[in-house]
Amino acid sequence: MGALDGLRVLDLATFIAAPMCATLLGEFGAEVIKVERPGAGDDLRRLGRQVDGVSLWWLSDARNKRSITCDLRRPEGQALIRRLCREADVVTENFRPGTLERWGLGYDALRRENRGLVLVRISAFGQTGPAREKPGFGRIAAAVGGVSYLSGYPDRPPVTPGTPTIPDYLAGVMGALGALVALRARDRTGEGQVVDLGLYEPIVRMLDDAIPVFGALGHVRERIGSAAESAAPHNHYRSRDGRWIAVACTNDRMFGRLAAAMGTPELVTRFPRMADRLGARADLDGLVQAWVGARDAAEALAALDAAEVPCALVNSVRDLFADVQVKARQNIVAVPEPRLGTVFLPGVVPRLSATPGEIRHAGVREPGADNEAIYLGRLGLDRGEYDRLRAAGVI
Predict the structure, then answer these.
(1) What pairs with residue 336 in β-bridges?
(2) Which residues contact 350 (CB under 8 A, 6 or more apart)?
């Protein structure tokens, strides 16, 4: 049994953040019903690179979900959703605030159907505040949340860290946490609640000490490239064979190990404290770069590993497929797919010892593949009514 077996999730959302919340719950046993637009289906089906007419992104992010189609803008579709909510535990959505209310699907309406329902609402700026109705995607969240300002080099424009979708995925994780916390509260009270999350808010939460430092000292952290604000040497260094190595020295002990590995133990005497090393950041980075640059990546990594210095190759996705640790932890898994044979997807995290998560199947190819099972079986519509709704484009 999965940890969340018996939990029912209705995913009304589209494009990454709130759907990711539902995906995470599904990986640990929840039944997730994905609601898509009749005909076109979810927008993610057309995003990213395609193979055999299907988005590989969709196959990954929509895994484990059942698919039904329903037009949420039409009263008959709204009535179907309200009925499905009667047996749901969690509903996820990411429309602009007020949209569900206009459709008669706001929390008050859904709670009348099921007082224990948890509604996870992820929007660009949350349900309150002067910016609540503004649209936004991951790039906007990274900008508003402060992490884009910190990303890049001081003499160049700020960049989006990693991919523009990182804020979406982080919000999905926070949304899943919120759902589980709300369900735990329901165990005591019998009452559901709303989980309200702005896409930018997890970014603000992850800025380590930038906020308390500014609040206390008025210090504005600026871009310093790939270096670290509070530690040195703590950077990326290029090897003789053109590969990049990450090295992290966050305390005196680790710096001593690095100095020994480089054959320059006198550096510990020259730079005994972190404050000394931060003041000489450029000089230290130059010394480490000279040492790494005189060696192939494998040689440098072997020496650093032997000295127990935190280090790693800066992996491309090709490197991830070859990484022995990634293989050992099954962080990339081969999943059967009806027409492709196999598709490689990111594995399930976190890892539970007694009730681990699993990928039961990749995202389903056809929007509404589970219409009959849900509408005829779950809701008990008769065939005539089902056919009428389908012909009218409601489902």
Answers:
(1) 342
(2) none
Coil/strand/helix, residue 311:
strand
- Residues 384 and 254: their CA atoms lie apart, in Å, by 72
Q: Which of 27, 67, 60 shows the shortest CA–CA distance to 334?
A: 60
In Å, how far from its chain's centre is CA 56?
Answer: 17
Task: For the chain, report the end-to-end CA distance as a whole number of angstroms.
Answer: 32
Residue 220: count of CB within 10 angstroms of its CB: 9
Topology match between the domains 8-205+329-391 and 234-321? no
Kindly list the catalytic residues.
Answer: 168
User: Which residue matches tokens 């100095």?
Assistant: 259
- Residue 32, SS3 per DSSP: strand
Please identify, in words, the CATH class of the domain defined by 234-321: alpha beta
Can you give the length of the chain in residues? Answer: 395
- Per-residue burial over 184-212, b = 16 or more CB atoms within 10 Å of its CB, e = otherwise: eebeeeeebbbbbbbbbbbbeeebeebee
Say if domain 8-205+329-391 classifies as CATH 3.40.50.10540.
Answer: yes
Do β-strands 194-198 and 118-123 pair in parallel, antiparallel, or remain unpaired? parallel
User: Per-domain residue ranges for the chain?
Assistant: 8-205+329-391, 234-321
pLDDT digits (tens, 9 = 90+) for 113-152: 999 999 999 999 999 999 999 999 999 999 999 999 999 9
Task: Say if CB 348 and CB 30 are below 8 A apart.
Answer: no
Distance, C-alpha 365 to centroid of its chain: 22
Tokens (6 digits) for 4: 């969340």
Query: Could you tell me the pTM of the whole model?
Result: 0.95
